[in-house]
């Protein structure tokens, strides 16, 4: 990997196109490299993972709405169309990217990478796949495109913090999806460069979508970025240009949205011929909740099983979770959001409340994508009483480990200190989730397939479950004709209020 210095340039300073970050990203994307066997295997895992969580969300309102919008648009004349999860209809690739992106993101249940910024790199897959299906590309070409999408997003996330300036993390997704589509289609560096600039320019938004009473837009935000990436590549292929330099310009993203004219970054990118391995640094979720909650769910389940007396709020004075800056300020009590303690809060809000999640996992010994969020579950009096005794504090060491670039010490958990009514104290800690590559039960192909089977049971016919798993696991060898089968078929009518379309 090579570190590329990035800063703002005044308009009277010359910054050669070849020295701009968007161009350097485009150079990575325009190089056609075969992925390593380990990387190819992980891409298959994540395709299965995305399908699993999309299936589990097919009847949820945001997914129904997005699917109805996609189904309202016929296939555009430039290709054969792209599939929509849960539909028998084809649509244009940008609308397939939209509908499938919402389905994947709705339950907050797929893969993650956390560093200077946050990300769900699996959000790249819907847009890149939609273009591949529409334009008749092979599984091998799709595989290369997905590898690029992961590589670019994770490299940006390692170097550039968006949330520090209250910019939503999908601002890294627009460029990465555009780059991935560029690799898929074998586009020249110039074209990918222009598409990256347009994709970034149209996908910067504030983090209010993840603050306070969190709305259904949380699932739509990455889908919108994917849709914009498809459209940006289309415009660039037609010779249209983008704001330049998009990152480094005097009125560009760094100068006005991020660290300002004095901001400095070093962005890692693979050198020519170097394998794209970033996907191997990412990790999926065993539980349907914000990633920083994964390890805490595992610890809470363990504590509740070993010490069932902890499930009774009468036995606890207080429980304090010592954790990272992000966990404390985004999903913990440090956010100062009263909604995080509100039993009538939306599902989107509750999955960003570690006090609620820790409490329910402690009491139930499980975490379920539906039961754990039900209004009845959230309103249970003993849960509300215990929930209000759980707070978080930032711990400098856990913050340091959260930001560490050493995968062996990078951590997303913390230490819990519980003060009991009898005067005793219980202390325990966890660094990473059980499903993490360094956790107690790391996810491998068996677990990804198991997650799909579990979430698809009762939703899809058995034959459809087996058909999809067969197609997904043959991804590198799929022909263009077979790539249309890389979806979940079925009839899930989109009953939703009528819109414009």
Account of the 3D structure:
InterPro entries: MmgE/PrpD_sf (IPR036148), MmgE/PrpD_sf_1 (IPR042183), MmgE/PrpD_sf_2 (IPR042188), MmgE_PrpD (IPR005656), MmgE_PrpD_C (IPR045337), MmgE_PrpD_N (IPR045336). The protein folds into 2 domains: 2-281, 2-methylcitrate dehydratase PrpD (Orthogonal Bundle), CATH 1.10.4100; 291-430, 2-methylcitrate dehydratase PrpD (60s Ribosomal Protein L30, Chain: A), CATH 3.30.1330. The protein contains 20 helices and 10 strands. The mean pLDDT is 95. The termini are far apart. The strands form 4 sheets. A 4-stranded mixed β-sheet has the order 8-7-9-10. A two-stranded antiparallel sheet has the order 1-6. It is α+β, with helices and mostly antiparallel strands.
């Amino acid at each position: 990997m090579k570190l590329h210095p990035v800063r703002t340039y005044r308009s009277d300073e010359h910054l050669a196109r070849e020295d701009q970050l968007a161009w350097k990203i485009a150079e990575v994307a325009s190089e056609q490299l075969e992925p390593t066997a380990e990387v190819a295997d992980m891409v298959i895992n994540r395709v299965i993972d995305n399908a699993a969580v999309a299936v589990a969300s097919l009847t949820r309102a945001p997914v129904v709405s997005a699917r109805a919008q996609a189904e309202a648009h016929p296939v555009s004349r430039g290709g054969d169309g792209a599939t929509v999860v849960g539909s028998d209809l084809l649509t244009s690739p940008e609308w397939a990217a939209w509908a499938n992106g919402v389905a994947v993101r709705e339950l907050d249940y797929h893969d993650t990478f956390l560093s200077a910024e946050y990300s769900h790199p699996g959000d790249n897959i819907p847009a890149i796949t939609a273009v591949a299906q529409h334009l008749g590309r092979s599984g091998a070409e799709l595989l290369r495109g997905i590898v690029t999408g992961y590589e670019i997003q994770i490299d940006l996330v390692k170097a550039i913090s968006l949330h520090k300036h209250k910019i939503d993390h999908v601002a890294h997704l627009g460029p990465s999806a555009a780059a991935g589509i560029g690799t898929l289609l074998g586009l020249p560096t110039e074209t990918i460069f222009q598409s990256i600039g347009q994709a970034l320019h149209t996908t910067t938004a504030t983090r209010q979508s993840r603050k306070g009473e969190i709305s259904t837009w949380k699932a739509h935000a990455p889908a919108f970025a994917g849709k914009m990436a498809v459209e940006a590549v289309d415009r660039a292929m037609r010779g249209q240009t983008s704001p330049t330099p998009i990152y480094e310009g005097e009125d560009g993203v760094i100068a006005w949205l991020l660290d300002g004219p004095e901001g400095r970054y070093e962005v890692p990118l693979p050198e020519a011929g170097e394998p794209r391995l970033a996907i191997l640094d990412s990790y999926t979720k065993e539980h349907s909740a914000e990633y920083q909650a994964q390890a805490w769910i595992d610890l809470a389940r363990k504590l509740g099983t070993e010490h069932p007396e902890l499930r009774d709020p009468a036995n606890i004075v207080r429980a304090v979770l010592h954790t990272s800056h992000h966990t404390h300020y985004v999903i913990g009590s440090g956010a100062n959001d009263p909604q995080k303690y509100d039993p009538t809060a939306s599902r989107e809000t509750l999955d960003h409340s570690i006090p609620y999640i820790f409490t329910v996992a402690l009491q139930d010994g499980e975490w379920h994508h539906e039961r754990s969020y039900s209004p009845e579950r959230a309103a249970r009096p003993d849960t509300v009483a215990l929930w209000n005794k759980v707070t978080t504090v930032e711990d400098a060491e856990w913050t340091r480990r959260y930001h560490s670039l050493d995968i062996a010490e990078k951590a997303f958990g913390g230490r819990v200190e519980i003060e009991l009514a009898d005067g005793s104290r219980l202390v325990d800690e966890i660094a990473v989730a059980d499903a993490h590559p360094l956790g107690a039960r790391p996810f491998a192909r068996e677990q990804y397939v198991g997650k799909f089977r579990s979430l698809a049971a009762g939703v899809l016919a058995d034959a459809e479950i087996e058909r999809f798993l067969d197609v997904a696991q043959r991804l590198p060898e799929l022909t263009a004709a077979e790539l249309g089968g890389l979806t979940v078929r079925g009839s899930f009518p989109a009953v939703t209020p009528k819109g414009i379309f």
